[in-house]
Amino acid sequence: MKKTKSLWLAPLVVSLLILVLSCLAGQVHRSFHDVVIRDIQYVNVEGALQRGLLYIPKTATAETPAPAIVSCHGNNNTAEMQDLHAVELSRRGYVVLAVDGYRQGLSSQAPDEASAIGDGAFAALQYIGTLPFVDKENIGMVGHSKGSLGLVLASQAAYTIHEADPSVIVPKAIVPTGVLMLGMDDTTPFLTAPINMCVFNADHDEFLGNIYPTLKGKDYNTLPIMKSVFGFDMPEYGALYEIGSSTPLDRTGAVTAGANGNLRCLISADTTHPGLHFSTAVEEKVIEFFDITLRNGRETIPPQNQIWYWKQILTGIALILFVFSVIPFGRLFLALPFFRDMTAAEPESFSVVADKKGLIRYSLLTILALIPAPALYLLCMNKWGAFVNPIFPLEQVNGFLVLNLVVGGCLLLLFCLYYQLIYKKNGASPNALTACLAPGKIWRSFLLAISMFTVCLAFIRIVDIFFKTDFRFWILSFCRMTPAKWAIYLRYVPSYFFFFAVTGLVYNLSARIRGSREWKTYVNLAVQSMAGLLIWGIADYTILYQTGFLGSLGAFGSSSSLAPLLVWNLVFILPVAAVITRYFFKKTGNIWTGAFINAFMAALFAVSNTIVSVGVL
Hints:
Layout: H1 2-29, E1 35-43, E2 49-57, E3 66-72, H2 83-90, E4 95-99, H3 121-128, E5 134-144, H4 146-164, E6 173-177, E7 196-204, H5 208-211, H6 226-230, E8 240-242, H7 251-259, E9 263-272, H8 280-294, H9 308-324, H10 326-334, H11 337-340, H12 356-370, H13 373-384, H14 395-423, H15 430-437, H16 442-467, E10 471-473, E11 476-478, H17 483-511, H18 518-547, H19 562-588, H20 592-607
Helix pairs in contact: 1-9, 1-10, 1-16, 2-8, 3-4, 10-16, 10-19, 13-14, 14-17, 16-20, 17-19, 17-20, 18-19, 19-20
């Protein structure tokens, strides 16, 4: 009885901590009940089912309509990625609508995609203008990367259509951050409508090198397109201008220019492309610009007073507890009679480090396995995985699909080679391999993993319903998915299962040192799982900060800067998976439970945020 109670204790504590952290994050999210958040879905003017988070300050009513903001995320994100804007602007009295772009999150595709404007930005703009508590004359838009491009296109289109149909809502001010459309030349207008605009650029933007092989982010204001945007060359960073005048304005002058839609500003931030939506300095300038253009310069809460990052801290801690919650719940389920029969003593590892010579050999073999990691990653992400089709419609995940198969295959070959040349000569027992694989226990391992995964999905739904939060820290997150996305998810799981089955074999029979203390084994496996990618990632970004360009651009078929950015997802998920693999191998004596649960979780991590590139949703 005491043992059963102790098994329940850890899951209950983890569950309680997750719920408490999510509750506190939810309080920050809704500005401690000063803002009501509605998770809404509506059929928009373009015929798509669009999902959004609607933030309604208590001061916004039909009698006292408030200025409003439409917030648009970048590629492979959801509405929650714009939390910093949503939280800070709504607590200052702005109504905010943060939307999922088409084919992302919980939004569908537009029936006529060719005529859809700005990936749902135009439709969201028209929707927010129908709300009775919104001041239709003072609506702004803010977005990041692809979302920035969308809101610029939506703003220009709204202004043009408005001339023939006055009921069409036109924004008064827009704030595109990390918008790469400014790579156009000076002969192509960026925005001709009289709409106030503040452009944000990252000094260390990973993607600028794809457009300008010689332009550093800090020299962004030298682009020829600036003449189209400002009416003159080389505007000063941070200064407020009236179109056509190179004389900086004070706040009073900026309010006057903003009333006519003629205000322009260019902000340079000492950060990276994704850092633009994770910066208190950036948010301060966003708030200031909207206060000037949508409130005639009136300030409510000082822009420096920000709380959004507390939500990130709280959900970030909850994220760590969430991914590791499978361990206490798995331990509990393994005590049930149905699963208890699948437990067995773990086989001994083949790696023996008895002296200095053995340590040197082990270290050399480990390094040999780690060195190819960056090259294989770039090749798989940019060349071998550069495909998309209706069967595998997630363009950004297809690189990981190929990576799983290629790296899994390479590790399996290395393991077989080491076994024949080294381990077998040192007396490695074939019985260990047989016990490790335990084919008769696969189906119970699958059911155990499904049980743990169901608990994780329940956590995602519970915190969403009650607290309007999810499990995330910046670009790392687990999100809800539509039924159509789940059908796609199932196509990607097998490649993850293959990878984690192989790594489970390699980690526990090859990388694990026989006789090593358990905590050292966990650390060793976690480090080995991502060391090659981590070292490369740090070096790549060090070069970016020193020179303005990623060092990997052009290497091993790398023509995009997305792969160096996505590597940080692997640096997070691989050590987590290594710890989980090790734990369940020690508990069950086979590789299958760890392989299944890691495949389910890693595939969810990869798929839930990703845009569906082709097919019907």
